[in-house]
Amino acid sequence: METWSDDRVREAVAARLPHHRAGSITRLGEGEDNVAFELDGELIVRFSKDPDPESRAARIDAEARLLHAVARISPVPVPEPLFADPGLGCLGYRRLPGTPLLGLPVPDPSAARLGTTVGELLAALHAGRMVSLVELDVQPGAAWLEEAAETYAAVAGQVPAAYRPRIEAFLAAPPPHDGYEPVFSHNDLGIEHVLVDPATLAVTGVIDWSDAALCDPAYDFGLLYRDLGPVALDSALRAYGEADGIRERAVFHARCSVLEDLAYGVAAYVDKSVAAFAWLFPG
């Protein structure tokens, strides 16, 4: 099994940033694809867990090129690589200020401002020409609904009884029409990936672009609606310039994805999922 020691992190930084002397090293976390470290509170170094050297190198190179391209068009800060080492399978960038929005209380006025910022970001991304940098990630609404039904069967016991008939009615109804043109988007724009100033809730950055793809333009709006509710969605669509079908498909994606978040099982995700049932499945 691959291991990532402090010495390996220092080796990676020394190879690419010889003038940087790493002091404290904190392991930030590990997902299915990557493990991340913070150096001295200012530098993030992320290693790919892909065991195949060629595939790992290709992933690191592709992500570095994508982040540089996104930084040129995004109206909010994004991680921009200071170095990429395909051989070591790692990427380094300066830590963006702020804290993830997940778990912070968001009153309606702040939700409206956050929605406006996200709408402006999505307008810029969806107009971006990124066809050569990302893959297509689309599936018909019927497939989303089938996956949601399977997830619901696994988590129904965690759903408050009042919402179960409403969710079951949603799962039994036909999905929205699939007629849309895929666009470049973050493709995982939940509030865990939105950094904010905790005092003002102003957006300070958007992180984790590993799922970026050509996808349904409504998908990231759906995650915003799932996490922050109708006030945020309304503001986002006003800033974006509401297009045909986006609101309906955003609501659809929000309802499907909230079940996935509930199944994830982490307390912060479970709490926000249960809270969101009030606007996603109203009586």
UniProtKB/TrEMBL annotation:
Species of the source: Nonomuraea soli
Stretches assigned to the Aminoglycoside phosphotransferase domain: 25-248
Name of the protein this chain belongs to: Aminoglycoside phosphotransferase (APT) family kinase protein
Residue stretches in coiled coil: none
GO molecular function, one term: kinase activity
One Pfam family recorded for the sequence: APH
Record key words, sorted: Kinase, Transferase
UniProt lineage: Bacteria, Bacillati, Actinomycetota, Actinomycetes, Streptosporangiales
Residues of the signal peptide: none
Gene3D superfamilies per record: 3.90.1200.10, Phosphorylase Kinase, domain 1
InterPro entries xrefs: AGP_Transferase, Aminoglycoside_PTrfase, Kinase-like_dom_sf
PANTHER family registered for this protein in UniProt: AMINOGLYCOSIDE PHOSPHOTRANSFERASE DOMAIN-CONTAINING PROTEIN, AMINOGLYCOSIDE PHOSPHOTRANSFERASE-RELATED-RELATED
